[in-house]
UniProtKB/TrEMBL annotation, chains A, B:
Alphabetical UniProt keywords: DNA-binding, Transcription, Transcription regulation
Record protein name field: DNA-binding transcriptional regulator, GntR family
Signal sequence region: none
One of the record's GO molecular function terms: DNA binding
GO aspect biological process, one term: negative regulation of DNA-templated transcription
Cross-referenced InterPro entries: Bact_HTH_transcr_reg, Chorismate_lyase_/UTRA_dom_sf, Tscrpt_reg_HTH_GntR, UTRA, WH-like_DNA-bd_sf, WH_DNA-bd_sf
DNA sequence: GAGTGGTCTAGACCACTAC
DNA sequence: TAGTGGTCTAGACCACTCC
């Protein structure tokens, strides 16, 4: 293990920042360079190391802040709801509707929902936050006949899960889901307010009504890897080490 | 979108490298700096951008080479076998046994396997390759009574999946599995021959015999994110856009 | 306007790899 | 031994955010 300057600085800062609550503003590059008596390149390398380890969030012109990753659990027996999932992890969820347009279902979406291409649907585009930090961005596709009143309903209740329960009388559950790590394109980076090329999750899910099996919606959502630690569980929850049985 | 120098260089190189077969050696930092008439910092930023996008692999003192990510599919209906999974993705798998020691099952492993702590087991530690590039590293835990002859068998056949089939008469399948993205510790980085702090997958799985349901082994495996694009599927394969039906 | 992170120059030395 | 990527200095200008 090389004993480089920036690595030494990074390790120091890791232990210092570990005791700070998430969201605390910390020293900037210039200050770190001065404090440790190094050039800005070394100080910058140290800060970028912390960012790579997802321990801080850096905002151009704004500063550097301690960060916390939230667990986003995906499994067959958990509700397919952003609010529920985030709340279960101990954070505060929030969603903002960017658009809700009537559009024909694209080919790939129609396939996922077992519909004919060009059937009428709604594309609900939202940005979601954990503790008021942007964490997720993406589309929800709902066939019009599943929920004709979606555009008006979404103005009063931001949880699609709740709307489906209350207005469509459905109990949404995951029919299938697929997750992978990708690299943020320009469009995704803009939606997530991160940099192009940052690591992001792509989660695609099809939800159905638990009682009837009817397919309800298709979700294509990007999630910032520095905001959420997506954990995908197959075949029931794997018991964790500190919760035996 | 900012029109920075390094971004312009990176975009140029992306389109140039796209036509090269994986593993091709490409120009180094110094050469890029000269070619585009920029300082080394700009050239370096461009190369690091390509590395972040997982398009190249860089080896200290060795050079920069074009890279390719292999799909590693995990779902209930796929065989829990490294060789099979890699071969299915069109690459050549290889595994090297680092150690195979008789050890008491640690607490957490015993819990996963439904055993009492401190029962006798084997810890099989291996490094695995795709197209001769290090891609995975981790442990397989097998209770001794499942496969007493494992240490000798693994000397002749590198696939644990095959050994379980042939010598234990079992048909291994995934009982449960759990995947997340983590940041490489020093130990993991050494096992994967990557840098500390690089993004890596952690995949933990419990495998059972399809016929009897008997739990066979527990796997804790780290996978380089730049080598494999892990895709996790829940509730059956989600049909892809170009394979409707 | 002050401070921040992002970009960039023109050098330098080093450890490492390949030959 | 030549070339590579990794680290580092001591400056600089910029766009951006916060106040």
């Amino acid at each position: 293990m090389p004993e480089t300057r920036f690595r030494h600085i990074a390790d120091r800062l890791v232990s210092e920042y570990a005791e700070l609550p998430p969201g605390t503003k910390v020293a900037g590059e210039h200050e770190i360079a001065e404090r440790f008596g190094v050039g800005r390149a070394a100080a910058r390398a140290a800060m970028q190391e912390l960012q790579r380890r997802m321990l801080v969030r850096r905002i151009k012109g704004g500063g550097t802040y301690t960060a916390k990753r939230i667990d986003y659990m995906i499994s067959a027996d958990r509700a397919p709801s952003w609010s529920r999932t985030v709340r279960d992890a101990g954070a505060v969820p929030r969603s903002v509707v960017l658009s809700c347009d009537p559009l024909d279902l694209p080919h790939d979406v129609a396939v996922h929902l077992g519909r004919a291409p060009d059937e009428a649907g709604y594309r609900l585009r939202r940005r979601s936050f954990t503790d008021d930090l942007p964490a997720s961005w993406g589309d929800e596709w709902v066939p019009v006949d599943v929920l004709p009143q979606l555009p008006t309903a979404i103005r009063h209740e931001s949880s699609l899960h709740e709307i489906l329960r209350q207005m469509a009388g459905a109990s949404p559950e995951r029919a299938s889901s697929r997750a992978s790590i990708e690299v943020a394109s320009d469009e995704v980076a803009e939606g997530l307010e991160c940099a192009t090329g940052d690591p992001v999750w792509l989660v695609e899910s099809v939800n159905r009504d638990a009682a009837s099996g009817r397919l309800l919606c298709f979700t294509r959502r990007w999630i910032r890897a520095d905001a959420m630690r997506v954990v995908f569980e197959l075949g029931g929850s794997v018991p964790s080490a500190d919760a035996p049985g």
